[in-house]
Amino acid sequence: MVSDLKALIEQTYTQKLLVEKANMKQLQSQINPHFLYNSFFILNTMARTGDYENLERFTEQLGKYFQFVTRSGADEVTLQKEVEHARIYTEIQALRFSNRVKVCFEELPREFSNIMVPRLILQPLIENAFEHGLSTVKRDGILNVSFRKCGDELHIIVENNGENIPDGKIELLKQKLADENTVRDEEVTALQNINLRLKLKFGRKYGLTVDKIQTGWFRITIAVPYREY
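Below the sequence we write its predicted structure tokens.
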């Protein structure tokens, strides 16, 4: 019983540290000169060209985005709120890459809306797709975000046809995601952080998986338990 109690305390403490790291990394990575510069550049262009309809919508998106990122709140949110935040971020980036990237972001099926998930698990994956996969694409880039019920699991899938990642790099990433001891490493990456928080919340069979589905296509899948609400 003492051993189980120690394990539970360590798990709770680890979860708290991971959430704090995730929130801090989010603040450091998103409220930065590059993101702000791109946002203000888009605002400037809309104001200069008289695109007032999109200007009003874009400023509202930015407000909601920063509200979600900076507000103090629960470590967990409904999947509905998590997806709404990720969609706003995607729409902001879609304006930035409008001439180069096509976005397909599916609607979240209603039966999945109230699943409680760790905060900030989807938007960083989309950020990763834009910044490391699609940023160098000159044209015909594609980002897909979809939702699939697979038995007793819900899969949230983020795919892009950006950088052609070598098979060796994919295998190395899979190994890092499988290494649960990475939590003790100072250099925990965003993907590892999300993966570990999902496993701590739902169990070892859940979390992130990565795949190269065809030449130039990279897919990250979030697996969480599905329940009727």
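The chain has a mean pLDDT of 82.
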